[in-house]
Every structure is written in C-alpha cells, then in structure tokens.
Design goal:
Layout: H1 3-16, H2 22-41, H3 53-65, H4 70-89, H5 116-124, H6 133-146, H7 150-154, E1 161-162, E2 167-171, E3 177-181, H8 184-197, H9 221-234, H10 244-256, H11 261-268, H12 273-276, H13 278-294
Helix pairs in contact: 1-2, 2-4, 6-8, 6-10, 10-13
Length: about 300
C-alpha cells in the first residue's frame, strides 16, 4: 500500500464514516503528508504498513526540533493515531505503531471572554446606515444569543428559523442537528435584516441561506472574522478576539448565571461534558478576580 493511496482512503473514511468537515479533513491530510514526507525522505520507508513505533517517535522528535508547539504536536499525534487505527480497522496493518505513544503535556488554555458591556460596545459600533449594517448586527446578536460556531452561523438557512417557538435548527460538527433557543433581541435584528435580505435575488445554490454578502452569496468564515476584528478595534477592545469569542462568552455568562452544565452542553453541541467543563474553570477565575478586587482582605 502506498502512502498516497492510504491517505486518500483515510480522507474518504473521515468524510463518509466520521462526517468531518472539509476543514478538519484538510488538517488531518496536512499532518499525514508531513508524516509521509518524513518517512520516505528521512527513513526511506515507502509504505505506511512498514512503520513501527520507533519511526513514529523519530517523527515526533522531528516536529519538536522544528519548533512546533506542544499543542500542535499533540494534535498531530492525535491525527497519526487515528490514521493507524483506520489502517488496523481495514486490516492493512496488524499492530498500531502509535498505540503506546503519549503526546506532550498540554495545559488547558482558558479562552478569552468578553463581558456583556464589551459585547454591547462591539455591536454598538455597527453603522446601521450602511447596506450591511443590519446584517452584521443580526449576525453578532445570533452568535452571542445562540453560542454558535462560525461554520454553524454561515450555514443557517431560512428554513431553519422557527421564530414562533423562539428557536433555530443548527447543523453542527458531523452534520449533527440540534435545536437552540434564540433571544427576542436576535429575532428582532434578524427581522430588520430580512427586509433588506428579501430584496436580494440569490441563485438556487444560495437562496435558502440566511446571511448573504453583497453579491447574494453565502458568507465565508474569513469575512465574519474580518468584520468581528474590525468592530472590536473600533470599540477599543484590546483583547485578542475572534467570532468564536462570542461562543465562549455565551457559555461563560450562562455558567456564571447558574445554568446547568448539561443544558449548556446541549446548546453548544458538545459531544462530551468534559469539553463544556472548561467554563466552570472560567467561572472560578471570574469569582477569584471578583474577590481580589472587592474583598478587604484580598
């Protein structure tokens, strides 16, 4: 089995069996190509079926020596493990050479969170007199109101809106659908935006998407990132933020307010409660900062 064939088959497995997004598959593919290049050029091994544990260890050392940070090293090893588990599942190899390997210890990094006041300041910088003003306000209100991933936001369809019941249908990772409550404010802003949206004439490919650009095409992730960064700068926000910061803020504010962690997990679309638990750590940090600021013995 050649490296090229094995990686192509692995990509198909990730798409068809695991239901991963194109971006996730691309990331896995890039990591596997790095392994392929190292094994053929440095170790002289022309097939993944010839790789043993020592080979994988040498590759991980190569990554570390090339300056790759620990978090990225751990991500690459995770991809390698998935690749060899797939080959084992397909009976292309008998033993998984990565099975006993452990990645570098990676400390849990707490995400950046915006306060309610900072979110209001960012949204307040939107110029509603401009053609995309109501759209941008509706987008950010929806991001914060529903705690969506950017990929989920850009893929919302008109047919996903259920305003009478105050919820929207969201398609998350692995094409898993969930119902998420939406705030009255977000519903109102989407309503204002729809007045402009209904004047557009998108083609059949884009006609059901809610958020469109000036060419009546579905928005891209990059465009939303650019809009968010620009508005944050206008609002004088010094934190390094992205559209995902609104999702972190949504979850953190819920936990701070006493929301049940299982409910937050459902709304975020996390497969594991362990992923959601990071927001309890954020809440603890917030409480400590409050004590340090206001307690007379701090």
């Amino acid at each position: 089995m050649s490296w090229n064939d094995a990686i192509k088959d692995f990509n198909s497995f990730l798409r068809l069996e695991k239901g991963l997004s194109a971006n996730s598959i691309s990331a896995y593919n890039n990591d596997m190509v790095k392994l392929w290049n190292f094994c053929t050029e440095t170790l002289g091994k022309q097939s993944p079926t010839k790789i043993d544990q020592q080979d994988v260890e040498q590759f991980l050392i190569h990554l570390e020596e090339s300056g790759l940070n620990k978090r990225s090293q751990a991500r690459v090893l995770s991809g390698i493990k998935g690749f060899f588990r797939y080959l084992q599942l397909e009976e292309s190899i008998e033993n998984d050479p990565s099975e006993l390997l452990q990645g570098p210890k990676v400390g849990r990094k707490l995400p950046t969170v915006l306060s309610v006041q900072e979110i209001d300041a960012i949204i307040g910088c939107i110029d509603l007199s401009k053609p995309d003003g109501h759209r941008n306000k509706a987008m950010l209100e929806t991001l914060y109101s529903c705690g969506l991933r950017v990929s989920e936001l850009i893929n919302i369809k008109l047919s996903d809106l259920h305003f009478n019941d105050e919820y929207i249908k969201v398609t998350g990772k692995g094409n898993k659908e969930r119902l998420v409550p939406i705030s009255k404010r977000a519903i109102t802003e989407i309503g204002y935006y729809l007045i402009d949206r209904n004047q557009k004439e998108p083609d059949n490919e884009n006609k059901d998407f809610l958020f469109l650009n000036r060419s009546s095409k579905k928005l891209t992730r990059v465009m939303i990132f650019t809009i968010t960064k620009k508005l944050a700068a206008m609002a004088g926000i010094k934190k390094t933020i992205s559209p995902h910061t609104f999702r972190h803020s949504f979850a953190t504010h819920l936990v701070e307010g006493g929301a049940d962690l299982r409910a937050v997990q459902e709304m975020l679309g996390h497969e594991s409660i362990l992923t959601t638990e990071i927001y309890t750590h954020l809440d603890t940090t917030y409480l400590r900062e409050t004590i340090m600021q206001f307690h007379p013995r701090a």
